[in-house]
Design goal:
InterPro entries: Haem_Oase-like_multi-hlx. With 400 residues, the protein is mainly α. It contains 18 helices and no strands.
């Protein structure tokens, strides 16, 4: 099936669902309240800016041509009412979802460049097509002669569906207005907890989450998109700890690290994320550096606890040895797994009893991995346990 036909087929239900929304009907009837109209414009401005930046960051000729296009303004979205991207704090919680999708698009520009065609299709062509136009015709023409592999096509279609889902969620909650906690826009299952509402900080938190997922493909393989949303909401919460006393921040982050380790994420992953978050925050708001320093300090404290058992070079050695054992195909598909195994053993020796079982059970599943991989996991755990246990400092073993 041609790609454009597949896109139409797989997004038809999304599009039909949009037309049933009260918000869309009010927009068409000209009865959408001004504050909702403004929030919608700001959300679209955020998405347009993010897509334009993502397209500009790629070198694929098809994407370069798309990036040079000017986006026409739909008659329903009068130019006189267009509000640009907010510059400081967010006026509407609905904008949080648009920011999250914007960060995802910019991340995709580096990871899966052709998935930007899916975002382009949904956001520029399908959501608000101009009356009397056939947006798919020009889109199809652009794809003529472009070779797209199966994995790239899947990513492209997934991106289009993701954009439709986000916009539907935004419009559905925008009007009629509902009282929803800010975290709902990042993760509907996160509950109500604090998160930054500063635009720059929120974008930095989401960039850090995406960078963490890029460093460890294990995140996506095991936890999928649902897990990504928890990374978003957790990262946005971590920002709120900035400026607090180190002892208090350590208490919060130690709790989170133990919780995540028991769910298959060694504390090394949180340690690395905190460093990425700190760097993104300082880059975004350098004048606030002193407030953010506590995040780096806590990451370093967490690292020092691990280094008593397993220093950075030893951790890398375990990772390199594991990669040799599993071979280039698997070591590239799931980067960093040897380090995570060794780090989980260090967590176990620090008293987190479920750190290894929660990771090893997934990594030793025969339906998921070949025998050489499983053997490498078991051998790495055996060696790491022998290595760490002889180095347990007095008073550390069994500590919660």
């Amino acid at each position: 099936m041609p790609l454009v036909d597949r896109l139409q087929n797989e997004t038809r239900a999304h599009y039909a669902g949009l037309e049933t929304l009260i918000c869309v009907q009010a927009l068409a009837a000209g009865t959408l309240p001004p504050d909702c109209h403004r929030a919608l414009h700001q959300a679209l401005a955020i998405l347009q800016q993010a897509l334009t930046q993502a397209l500009a960051a790629t070198s694929h000729p098809v994407l370069v041509a798309l990036g040079a296009e000017a986006l026409p303004v739909h008659p329903l979205l009068e130019q006189g009412l267009v509000s640009g991207v907010p510059q400081d704090r967010l006026e509407s919680h609905a904008l949080i979802g648009a920011i999250a999708l914007g960060v995802r698009m910019r991340s995709a520009a580096h990871r899966e460049p052709l998935s930007l065609l899916g975002y382009h299709y949904a956001l520029r062509l399908a959501l608000f097509p101009l009356p009397g136009t056939s947006p798919w015709r020009e889109f199809a023409q652009r794809l003529e002669g472009v070779t797209i592999e199966a994995a790239e096509e899947e990513g492209l279609v997934r991106a289009a569906s993701e954009a439709f889902s986000l916009i539907r969620r935004l419009l559905d909650a925008l009007h009629p207005a509902r009282e929803l906690p800010p975290t709902w826009w990042l993760n509907r299952d996160a509950g109500e907890h604090p998160m930054t509402m500063d635009l720059d900080e929120l974008q930095a938190a989401l960039r850090a989450a995406e960078a963490s997922w890029e460093e460890f493909p294990y995140y996506a393989c095991r936890y999928g998109e649902h897990g990504r949303q928890f990374s978003w909401s957790d990262s946005a919460w971590l920002v709120t700890l900035s400026g607090q006393a180190e002892a208090q921040v350590w208490k919060h982050i130690s709790w989170l690290g133990g919780l995540l380790a028991g769910r298959g994420m060694p504390r090394l992953m949180l340690e690395r994320h905190l460093r990425m978050l700190y760097q993104e925050l300082v880059h975004a708001k350098p004048m606030q550096r002193r407030a953010y320093d506590v995040l780096w300090q806590v990451a370093e404290r967490m690292a020092e606890e691990r280094r008593r058992l397993l220093d950075d070079q030893e951790l890398r050695t375990f990772g390199e040895d594991f990669d040799v054992r599993v071979g280039p195909e698997w070591s590239q598909r799931l980067r960093g797994m040897g380090e995570l195994l060794a780090a989980a053993v260090a967590d176990e020796c620090c008293g987190l009893a479920q750190a290894v079982p929660s990771l090893a059970a997934w990594m030793c599943e025969p339906s998921r991995f070949p025998e050489p991989w499983i053997r490498a996991v078991e051998e790495t755990l055996t060696r790491a346990r022998a290595f760490c246990r002889v180095r347990i400092p007095s008073g550390m073993a069994g500590r919660e």
